[in-house]
Amino acid sequence: MRRGTPLIAGVVALAIVLAGGPAAHAAVAEAGPERAARAALGGGEATDAPASPSPAPTESPAPGESSAPGESSAPVETSAPDESSAPVEPTEPVEATRPPAGPDAVQPRAQTQAGPQVELQAQTVVTPFPGGAHRLAGADRYATSVEISKRFGASVPVAYVATGANFPDALSAAAAAASIGGPLLLTGPTALPELVRAELVRLKPTEIILAGDEASVGPAVFTALSEIAPTIRLGGANRFETAELLNADAFQTADLAYIATGWGFPDALAASAVAGAQRAPVYLVDGNAASVRAETLAGLHSLGVKTVRIAGSTPSVSAGIEQQLAASGFRVHRDAGVDRFETAVALNDAVYGGRSSIEQVFIATGVGFADALAGAALAGRLGAPLYLVRQECMPEPVSNSLLSLAADARVVLGSTPSVGHDAANGSLCIYWSKPADGRITDVFGPRTPICTPGGCTSSFHRGLDLGTGCGRPIRAASSGGVITAAPVGTFGNFIRVSHAGGVDTGYAHLQNGGILVNVGDYVRAGQVIGLSGATGAATGCHLHFEVYVNGTQVDPLPFMAARGIGF
Q1: Can you tell me the distance from the alpha carbon of 109 to that of 86, in angstroms, rounded to the nearest whole number?
Q2: Rounded to whole angstroms, how far apart are CA atoms 355 and 479?
Q3: What is the mean pLDDT of the chain?
Q4: For residue 256, what are the contacts with CB-CB under 8 A and spacing of at least 6?
Q5: d(Cα 141, Cα 483) in Å, to the nearest integer?
Q6: What pLDDT band is residue 431 in, cutting at 50, 70 and 90?
Q7: Is-contact 108 5, C-beta < 8 A?
Q8: 532 forms bridges with which residues in the sheet?
Q9: Which residues have a Cβ under 8 Å from the Cβ of 47 and sit 6 or more positions away?
Q10: Inter-residue contact 269 to 373 (CB < 8 Å)
Q11: What are phi and psi of 94, to 5 degrees?
């Protein structure tokens, strides 16, 4: 074996077989050297399942990944439209007792040091993308994984295969595949698709790693793979142990590791790509728990990990886990955003931010997992970021991050029902929110000037006044960058936000101390940016709300009505 567990593990496993007879041999065949040792010493096979695990959610947003404020008009984040042809994604199909050892059970393999791993990686040839726009897509998720795999030349050191019906097994496999230098292909749970078989024949891998136990991918698939190349199954009693086994097999050492919740796919998808680019493992954890499994902690220490990066906010991976990792001696960083799209941006910016240019970037749907699973292995191998988008549009933070990288090539993963033409071309998702509560007290148009100790207004009212009362929350009408946050003449305390498409919004008469943002801040639709007041030329506490289109003030009422916002 080229990588992974130290040599001593194989020797211990062999000693257990020799000393323990058939029962011990079955433990090694089923679980590999480390689990065999635990089984022999502990009087039975440990399942390593988390205590009283909560049921994993189905293909819905991961915990903590609700839409950002003001995004209620966005489509519900369920499975991507073009993924209906895949098998139904059952809840936790592998969280049961491990099946008895069979002909495709994991066999102990001889261990070697770093030399063979370097030699294997040297075989990998991946064709980069020329400048311009590209799309890798097939008729279904399996065909799309084949199109992605075709960027790898023949005679790869390894090919990973995982079920296309669920996401957990493939999440860690993608980073491992990128690190070693092979593609990740998807298979049906009970049968290997013919086009996937043909692609594996073309690849001529030195070996195939099948991720997941028999409940995820059945024996018939293992048999079909074994007819193509020597095949190893790495599957644990649950998704967390499967990730541990994959990482122990693929990595000998690692200074850096990523962890992500195992209950949802979005955070781990982007993490798999950046991890693969840095030749780092991805561990899955029960993000709702206060700590990680002892086996995960041991795996991190055995690789010599110094830094752990957490993908996702605290609802996805708890603060308790972060504290436990820090107390265990790791440097811990968290890459998180308000939703899955911004979390992917945070992960990518932490690795690629500040670069003046990059050769290629990848884009995949953020509401389904299948296309990005195989894509993460390719992106990671090419050292390219993977961004998530909606089907119909590109979230503004994603667009901003992409613009900062100025990539030569943009590669879309999946067909148009997954990532539409508008999203692929960078059309922004723009959401609008009511800036404040309160009745309309004045409208856009001519009026008698108002004079106060703060000054006199003009004879034309270029905004909309809302009687909010004093100290009430003022919200950004849409996402954008703050360009003014200071007293401005008769406006009093004033905030101006620049949005996409040449649109700005203004918020006047905020109370003293009521400017809650700074110039340069990025704000989101519905985010509280200030508190209402009566500074400037105002006779009482209210919000004076303005809309600018290409620098010219326009009537906010019809402008907002056209965007579904009424007052």
Answers
A1: 34
A2: 25
A3: 81
A4: 275, 278, 280, 305, 306, 307, 308, 309
A5: 44
A6: confident
A7: no
A8: 510
A9: 97, 98, 237, 238
A10: yes
A11: -115, 10
Q: What is the largest CA-CA distance in the chain?
A: 99
**Are 53 and 29 within 8 A, CB to CB?**
no
Distance CA 272, CA 375 (A): 10
What is each CA distance from 60 to 164, 394, 430, 473, 552, in whole angstroms?
16, 20, 23, 32, 43
Type of residue found at 350: A
Residues listed for the chain: 567
What is the phi/psi pair of residue 169, to 5°? -60, -35
Ranges 100-114, 160-174, 553-567: which has the least confidence: 100-114
Please state, in angstroms and as integers, the Cα–Cα distance from residue 356 to each residue in 132, 353, 403, following that order. Answer: 17, 9, 10
One-letter amino acid of 100: P
Q: Is the pLDDT of residue 194 over 70?
A: yes
Of 53-57, 384-388, 426-430, 541-545, which range is least confident? Answer: 53-57
Residue type, 470: C
**pLDDT above 80 for 12:** no
Lowest mean pLDDT among 75-89, 467-481, 492-506: 75-89
Do residues 143 and 110 touch, judged by C-beta distance below 8 A?
no
DSSP secondary structure string, 196-233? HHHHHHHH--SEEEEES-TTTS-HHHHHHHHTTS-EEE
Instruction: Summarize the confidence of residues 130-134 as an average pLDDT.
Output: 95
Token pair of 527 as six digits: 């985010």
What the block records as the tokens of 348 is 């990518």
Residue of 326, 299, 296, 311 whose CA lies nearest to 263: 311
Q: What's the whole-number mean pLDDT along residues 38-66? A: 32
CB half-sphere exposure, 497, CA atoms < 13 A: 31
**DSSP secondary structure letter of residue 336:** -
> Phi/psi at 439 (nearest 5 deg)?
-80, 155
pLDDT(514) > 90? yes
Q: pTM of the predicted model, to two decimals?
A: 0.72
Calpha distance 101→522 (Å, rounded): 55
Q: Report pLDDT digits (tens) over 443-459.
A: 999 988 878 776 787 88
